[in-house]
Amino acid sequence: MAGKSTYLRTVSINYLLACIGMPVYASKLELYPSQLITSLKTTDSLINNESYFFAEVKRLSFIINKLTQGEKLFIVLDEILKGTNSIDKQKGSFALIKQFIELNADGIIATHDLLLGELINHFPESIHNYCFEADICNDNLEFSYEIKEGIAQNMNACFLMKKMGIKISE
């Protein structure tokens, strides 16, 4: 709702446009052309007998294999490993990001997992945290749609669920 997924799509589209020599929607863009790999909309498949999680792990394995073979990639991922339980998701996400760093991967990974933001303490040269904030003003959510440095501080999910009639105990 704050603009994270839209931002990822915008970056991806502009990256692709720049790589093929087209104009981009930016006042300035500096990049090193490489293959764009995204995982913005992973889906399950009854036909292929694949769960959402399995499809995502296959995509991540594909990315790791390309990096291991020495290919330069620009990776854009939205909410990695969201098809599993929270402990596996966190453990797997930490391991995946560490492996990306070891393989000198470039890109953007968006997450709602606040603990993943702490990886900057272990890899300050490789990781940079940015966020979109939502503010609660006059009993409404308000969005600036401006990217800011750091980890999002405002928690709005419970506010929105209460507003939609879902009972949340304090």
Walk me through the topology.
Elements: H1 4-19, E1 35-39, H2 52-68, E2 73-78, H3 86-102, E3 106-110, E4 130-131, E5 134-137, E6 140-143, E7 148-149, H4 157-163
Parallel strand pairs: 1-2, 2-3
Antiparallel strand pairs: 4-7, 5-6
Structure description:
It is globular and about 50 Å long. It has a three-stranded parallel beta sheet, sandwiched between helices. The protein has a two-stranded antiparallel ribbon with strand order 4-7. It has helices at residues 4-19, 52-68, 86-102, 157-163, and strands at 35-39, 73-78, 106-110, 130-131, 134-137, 140-143, 148-149. With 170 residues, the chain is an alpha/beta fold. The chain is 34% helix and 16% strand.
Please tag this protein with its features.
170 residues; alpha/beta; Rossmann fold; 2 domains; two-stranded antiparallel ribbon; globular
In short, what is this structure?
This protein has 170 residues and is an alpha/beta fold.
